[in-house]
Fold this protein.
Amino acid sequence: MDQNRKLSNDHLLVILRKVDSAIAIYSGSEMCLEFASQAMLNAWSKGSEVIGKTLSGVWPETSQKHFHDILQNVWNTGLDYTEEASPTQQVVNGKLQIFYRDHVYQALKHDDGKVYAILHTVTDVTDKITIQIDAKHPSNEELVTINNELTLAKDRLKEINLDLQLSDIQLHKVLSELPIPVVTLMGEDQVISVTNQAILKLWNRTRDEVLGKPMLEVFPELKNQPYPSLWKKVYETGVPVSFTEKTVVYKDKVSGGDRSFYIDYFCEPLVDRNANRIGIISTVFDVTEKVQSRKQIEEAEARLSLALDSAKLGTWHIDLKSNELTSSSRLREIFGFDMQKEITLGQATDQILDSHRTDVIESIEHALATGAFYDIEYPIKRYSDDVIRWVHATGMIYGATGDKMNFSGIVQDITQRKFEEQRKDDFLSIASHELKTPVTALKGSLQLLNRKKNDLTHPMVPRLIDQAYVSVEKITDLIDDLLNTARSNAGQLHLNYSEFTISTMLEQCCQHIRMGGKHELIFQGDKSLKIEADEARIDQVVVNLVNNAAKYAPDQQNIYLNVENLGDRAKVSVRDTGPGIQRDKIKHLFERYYRTDYRGTQYSGLGLGLYISAEIIKRHNGEIGVDSTPGEGSTFWFTLPYKPLIRTEK
Amino acid sequence: MNNLIYVLEDNADILEIITMILEDFRIEGFGTVSEFSAGFSRHSPALCLLDVMLPDGNGLEVCQQIKENPSTAHIPVIVMTANSSIDKMKEKGTADDYLAKPFDIDDLTQRITNLI
């Protein structure tokens, strides 16, 4: 075949050079430009002098590295390479133009497959591509503008990137200094990845002690607490969880003791760029102090409420801006309103008795004007049943002046106290009256004796001396009663125990009654019964009961004294056949200062007899009582243990 | 001259002392209001000396009845009491004089003499 060839290789090269295609041939690993067609040289803007030069000789500039890499690759691998519509910028007639060219690099190989040259052909497809681009893209000028904008955008992107790096640093700084504890736990193993100072402080751990370790490895004590399963749930479901005021207990790393906290807790899933869940992030608010403070307040309020309840105190609060009353159910109960329904200030003040309403209002106004303590006692008419009750109201202004002023206080039902006070006043009045009566007789006797001092033989004198003596006796008895009452009140009623026979004691006592001749004392029952007690005090009790029988049943001659053996104790009764006592009065009989009738002096005395008697019997651990039927008489009785149960006296 | 004095006093000791003090007068003593009223209808005393707290009534009320009745209103009445509220009685009462217990015997005599 070679014999038929007429053209030498050089000819062929010349011809090739003329082909209106851009062709180049390179050889050797250094890529010696063996051949380049005119079209190729034109495309390169090079002259024919470049032929025979290596690539680095043709293009010393590094910008052609891409081109060089392709040739090297084809040379080394023997594989062809095609690059379609590759854009190239080129200045034509002083104007920058973009050309699009298809490049084909073909490896020319020996029969043994070894590459000896590379054929590089270039086809200009600019027209075709430009038409395509024009169809959907802006003009060249616009492209240049876009290009410029892209360059600007790139610069901006760099700045943003820098900002982001700075932000990242700042974010870490902020997170670290955030006073709220934050932690991220990664993966199923709940590995601690991000922490901040606040959570490290809560844990009392250093960053090195926790970072990169599974949560439960650092805090095994959490295993039995609800948190690990909660993190797992958030990690698996992606559903955030939050709750407030839960307890969490950590072990102290040194002492091993419990460190308990109240926390508000927010747990959210943590996702990567592709929205895959990679862990959880927890925000923990330590609300221990807040919760404890509140619990303390709640406890204090509960204690106060308990104290108010036990003292049966009603509370009230008046909003001075609106004049609105807030009252406790106890206050409403005291005033006789429905305990469950709020009442107005007007409703409350309407229940104050007319006689005291002005005083109350003035007292309130005085407190408001001066800031003085509000303290007043006044009667009210209960709303529900019109019953008069006495209340004691106290209050204070507190808070800032003006709109925020508060006026609060308590109300106490003091009806019982008022009743006691009244009874005590009555008693003092009676005591005074009772003492003045024998004193009047005494004073009269002495003054008359004084008149007769020069005539002691006057028949009036012995009678006056008697009268003076009797009056002094009566005064002494009254004073004894008062003293016994005072001693009993002070717990100073001393008992001197001795054994005695009850019937003997009864026979000897009450001589004044027997001597008076008006009544007869009739003994009944067990004559031999003995007892260990304070004989003088028991005698005093019997005298009191017999005196009462004589006083309240003056027209009945017989007074019966009865002694019974009740097994472990003795019962002594004093029975009269007088008018009896009304049932409603019986329960008050043994109370201090009580008298069945205040009107007259028929039943003279201090009303202390039964009270003192009851105290004496109680001190002996006995009981005292009365059985009475109006119209049939009364039986006053007391019981005494045979032996003192408790030796209260030495 | 009528020197009859009615004394209404339930305390026998005091009644006896008053009788001895007023030895120059004729004294008629009563322990209860009902006894006094019965006696009052029989005679007309020159003066009444009334205690206040009595078994079956009140001396102030007795005084009021005497003063409200035109036929007895002229009879002087002295109210005597051991009650501490004698000043209140003076304000509201209708008696001619009031005497606090324990009294001075000369004072008692003087007041009676003043009114008879």
About this structure: The CA atoms of residues 242 and 266 of chain A lie 4 Å apart.
